[in-house]
Amino acid sequence: MKKTQISLFLIKIQGAPKFIAKPEDTVAILDQAAKFECQVDAAPKAKLTWLLNGKELTTKDNVKFETDAKTSAAFLIVPKVMAAHIGAYTIKASNSVGEVEHNFKLDAFGN
């Protein structure tokens, strides 16, 4: 009986990040919530960095970061918009293959 050899190969395709959904310029009401959504396609998975006026945002800036496990959508949530949140935002997505960024603005008015 003749033996047949089967070889399996795993091909891993890598790609620089690209936006599927991008946050849009928004006008919010002071003391109310604002939410921004971003979806990125990348392999390997992209690291997301949110910036306000060129400074990286952290939870100390009174914002929240969430991810939807089903859709891989990432959210920046401002639970209570204050004057300090108004400005030019940037979302950066980067992996070992490349980087992409998108700019958007948040403005607000009193309630």
Outline: elongated
Number of strands: 9
- Under CATH at level 1, the class stands as Mainly Beta
Rounded to the nearest angstrom, the distance between the terminal CA atoms is 84 Å
Rg, nearest Å: 19 Å
Short note summarizing the structure:
The chain has strands at residues 15-21, 26-29, 34-43, 47-52, 55-56, 64-67, 74-78, 87-94, 99-109. With 111 residues, the protein is an all-beta fold.
What does this structure look like?
With 111 residues, the protein is mainly β. It is elongated. It has one domain: Immunoglobulins (Immunoglobulin-like, Sandwich). The mean pLDDT is 93.
SSE map:
Elements: E1 15-21, E2 26-29, E3 34-43, E4 47-52, E5 55-56, E6 64-67, E7 74-78, E8 87-94, E9 99-109
Parallel strand pairs: 2-9
Antiparallel strand pairs: 1-3, 3-7, 4-5, 4-8, 6-7, 8-9
Features of this protein?
111 residues; mainly beta; Immunoglobulin-like; 51% strand; elongated
